[in-house]
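Subject: sequence -> structure tokens, single chain

Hey, anyone have a minute? Need the predicted structure for the following. Not urgent.
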Amino acid sequence: VPMDAEVFDTDGTYDHSTNYRWTPGVAGKYWVFAKTRHDFGGVAAGILSLYKNGATFIGSREQQGHSNATTHHISMIVESDADDYFEIFAYQNSGGDEVINGGTDEVSGIFGGFRLAGM
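Reply:
Had a minute. Here:
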């Protein structure tokens, strides 16, 4: 999911223009989080997945009923080496192109993380 706008990136470790990956740069424990909103009508399933080093690490799946949108949240503490990288992927099976991070809410899609001090 191309999250191409940044609010905070104090260490310049998020690539917001090429591969949309976050590489913490310092080994430690991190709180990593993501949220997306899938807009589609009818019955469909949506999945949001956090990848670590190119492989699925954790995912959120929801079967949608008859509303127009579903929101997925992922958050957890992860162990990271200095060169590990994180990215998010989304999938939906409505049978056509659909909007992700839709709506008028400017923060309907987020992705980030921070190091937990003292752990």
